Amino acid sequence: MQILVTGGAGFIGSHLVDKLLEQGHIVVNIDNFDPYYSPDIKENNIINAIQNERYKIYREDILNSKKLDQIFSTHDFDVVVHLAAKAGVRPSIEDPVSYAKVNIEGTMNLLEQCKKYEIKKFIFASSSSVYGNNKTVPFSESDSVDNPVSPYAATKKSGELLCYNYHHLYDINIFALRFFTVYGPRQRPEMAIHKFTRRINNNEEIPVYGMGKPERDYTYIDDIIQGVLKSIQRVKGYEIINLGESSTISVTDLIHVIESTLGKTAKTQMLPMQPGDVSRTFANVSKARKILNFQPTTDINTGIQKFVNWYLETNLQGN
User: Fold this and answer.
1) DSSP 51
2) 113, 119 in Cβ contact below 8 A?
3) Where would a tag sit more exposed on the chain, N or C end, judged by fewer CB atoms within 10 A?
4) How far apart are CA 53 and CA 42, in angstroms?
5) Is there a domain that residue 267 lies in?
6) What is the mean pLDDT of the segment spanning 220-249?
7) Given pLDDT bands bounded at 50, 70 and 90, which one contains residue 58?
8) Is 203 left (phi over 0), alpha (psi -120 to 50) or beta?
9) What's the domain range around 164?
10) pLDDT tier at 37, thresholds 50, 70, 90
11) CATH number of the domain to which 169 belongs
12) Percentage of the chain modeled with pLDDT above 70
């Protein structure tokens, strides 16, 4: 297959690209190397991919509809996997307009190209953030998501609605995958597990929001990629599907796991909840099991060990 991956130089995207190339597919990547974090990290993420003759990268923005049209007219895509987005809950509160522009208009631009070129398979990366402070646990796809608590979450809910609309009007098969706090090698440096590991290892203080009480359903990158790959093969109709580990851990307990793995003690500063944060995420993955035969296999202790091993190795190499 010839597969377009947007955001394919990022954390999740680069892992997906590597796996798709390993499986023998032709992969086209559109990524604008947004400076939200160092573009050098993304350059490092695609070091192996750019050496593969079945890989093509366009350093372009999904807001550039003319360039998108050129790309879509050049290639005969079987599937579009749309991972590109402005990421981060807290930054979206500071700059909601740009988040809406990229995450909503950018998604519509891609759906318009699928309509024009009659591409009938589309995978959309949504987020567990759409659940807000959902009281029912674990979170199910049938739960109401009408009360987002951050602009980022609102843009992801909007993306799901656009996807449904294009499925309804143009018969595009779409799976909207709600990712639950993905971690693992190449994770963005500002995300909790990466930040905690770096600061504990460097004997620096960690700001711990919500007094360490919030709980998250951390999902290891290999399990997320498993779900995306199965979605590419099975996408039909329109479905919203949770992809998570379906297990939670508090921030305090997470820090203890990282401490134990590193063999160091954290210096913590307990702080109140931040605007836009939620108290808990917890995925019901029964639908993913049924439709995708999704089988998450990496518990938090195993995943943290793998992440720390990667972090220490890349840190020694100066990356």
Assistant:
1) G
2) yes
3) C
4) 19
5) no
6) 97
7) very high
8) left
9) 2-183+220-245+282-298
10) confident
11) 3.40.50.720
12) 99
| Residue position matching structure tokens 């790309």 | 71
What pLDDT does residue 316 have?
66
Which are the catalytic amino acids?
A: 152
> Rounded distance, CA 8 to CA 304, Å?
24
Query: Does residue 153 sit in helix, strand or coil?
Result: helix
pLDDT per residue as tens digits for the range 304-318: 999 999 999 988 654
* 319 part of a folded domain: no
CB-CB contact of 167 with 193 (8 Å): no
Q: Does 211 reside within a domain?
A: no
The pLDDT of 247-258, averaged and rounded, is: 96
Which of these, 263, 277, 297, lies nearest to 192 by C-alpha position?
A: 277
In a domain, 273, yes or no: no
Question: CA angle 63-66-70, nearest 5°?
Answer: 120
Type and span of the H or E element at 249: strand 249-250
d(CA 214, CA 251): 6
User: How far is Cα 256 from Cα 279, in angstroms, rounded to an integer?
Assistant: 19
Report residue 91 CA to chain centroid gap. 16
Distance CA 311, CA 16 (A): 20
Alpha-carbon distance of 87 to 199, in angstroms, equals 22
The residue written with tokens 């093969």 in the block is: 233
With a CB cutoff of 8 Å and minimum separation 6, the contacts of 35 are none
Averaged pLDDT, 65-89: 97
Number of other CB atoms surrounding residue 136 within 10 Å: 12
* Structure tokens given for 164: 């449904």
Assigned token pair, 316: 């020694």
Domain count, the chain: 1
pTM, two decimals, is 0.95
